[in-house]
Amino acid sequence: MIALKEITCRLGAFHLRPVSLELREGDYWILLGPTGSGKSVLLSILAGLIQPDSGQVLKDGTDITRVVPERRGFSMMVQDFALFPNMSVYENIAFPLRVRRQPREEIGKRVEAMAAQMGITPLLKRGLKGLSGGEKQRIALARALIVKPDLLLLDEPLSALDQMTKRELIEELRAIHREHGIPVIHVTHDFEEGISLGNRMAVIHQGEMIQKGTPEDLSRRPETPLVAAFVGIKNIFRGGIEIREGSPVFVMGDVRFELPAGKPGEGVVAIPSEDIVLSTAPVVSSARNTLTGVVREVRPHPPLADVLLDVASLPLTATVTARTVEKMGIQPGKCLF
Fold this sequence. Notes:
Layout: E1 2-11, E2 14-23, E3 28-32, H1 39-47, E4 54-59, E5 62-63, E6 74-77, H2 89-99, H3 104-118, H4 133-145, E7 151-155, H5 163-180, E8 184-188, H6 191-197, E9 200-205, E10 208-213, H7 215-220, H8 225-230, E11 235-244, E12 247-252, E13 255-258, E14 265-271, E15 293-301, E16 304-311, E17 314-321, H9 322-328, E18 335-336
Parallel strand pairs: 3-8, 3-9, 6-7, 7-8
Antiparallel strand pairs: 1-2, 1-4, 4-5, 9-10, 11-12, 11-14, 12-13, 15-16, 15-18, 16-17
Helix pairs in contact: 2-3, 2-4, 3-4
């Protein structure tokens, strides 16, 4: 097991507040947060590139906080890949093994096997000039994996790729994680990317880890409006919570929502847009919250679409399939329930 224990670090005006995290075999951690929140700093501390001011980095119970990067057994892939432009693809992948003075025959076997796994065997004799972003990403990932690391650190690995290449590489990362089983920490600001890969997730903001858990925990039970926004919830409202007939009710202007739980006072409600059901006629059901709204705008993003509604004083977004929009004749001005 690899663990961070109460890690802190000051870099100029930036302050990483006490962070603790445990990485077990099979974990794929996603670190979400805005630019400058401390995600990459945390990766660099794990890699040994930055020394923390306090706290410990532990590997199987041993303190490795002051151990040099090359003796930690970790691999890190940075955002710009950091490939050597004066080397061939083969030489780039082989470089970590040569630094470790592995026999030439062993290096050749491992490079060829890794290149075959990553689908880049035809590139081995080429230089880097003219290679696509996706090809460079595969080369950098092959170089990181060839040393059989105990932890793989990925800093925004998919940020510069087109959508088709990104989808392909998400599938490759899944396959690699299944096959190797090593823990991964993957930094991104894209929740959809994160939920496609991770089984554990944390949100960092201004140097503080404000929530961690499973993707389900964060998307269904966000603890702050910031977490709700980062996990893609489009309906976040501030208002008051009142107790009426023994049940908590959220009040915002003319709109009322019954809540499953809550205490009187100011509060925030986050409603996933996928949880809103639309109908062209009044619905009689066991649903506790049935509202009426008028369509303001339809924003397609195939195969889905966001339907923006005005519900009294409340702007509400529902996400449905593009087929539903067509079938129900949803368009601006239409009244929905």
